[in-house]
Amino acid sequence: MRATVLVRPKAGILDPQGEAVESSLRQLGFLVDEARVGRVIELAFDGRDNARRELERMCEQLLANPLIESYEIEVDGA
Amino acid sequence: MRATVLVRPKAGILDPQGEAVESSLRQLGFLVDEARVGRVIELAFDGRDNARRELERMCEQLLANPLIESYEIEVDGA
Question: pLDDT averaged over chain B?
Fold first, then answer.
């Protein structure tokens, strides 16, 4: 079973990596208002019946820091 | 205009961050076969007519390393 997890900095939380990307894009001449950088994690795993619940537990225990990051889980059909 | 860019390590390219996530998830008891870690970049920008072409240029010039990473562009409707 395959899944994609998107982890993003929550709104209002400082994102230094995003600020660096934003400023570099501007220096290259792109008209960027804002950039935010997060992580995309692709997983192949044995999910059995409750894949989504397993993925939520992975996010809460390791993949995301719930204080400052939000996560989005997409379970692939296959 | 808003867009999301997903940058992932290409297949076959070593991904130490993914390996670390994989091994940590296993240590926590999850039955993970593989984990790959990339970046998600959310952009607000002035895209005018050719937003996708602009985003491709951003990816090629800054956001992705085309030798080892692939990118996927999603332009949001709004």
Answer: 94
For every residue of A9-45, DSSP letters joined together read EPTTS--HHHHHHHHHHHHTT--EEEEEEEEEEEEEE
Task: Give the CA radius of gyration of chain B.
Answer: 16
The CA-atom distances, in angstroms, between B15 and each of A42, A48, B11, B23, B50 are 12, 26, 9, 12, 33
Q: What is the pTM of this model?
A: 0.92
CB contact under 8 A, B25 and A54: no
Tell me which chain A residue has its CA closest to the CA of residue B39. Answer: A39
What residue in B sits closest to A22 (Cα-Cα)?
A: B43
Q: Give B73's contacts in chain A (Cβ within 8 Å).
A: none
pLDDT over 70 (residue B30):
yes
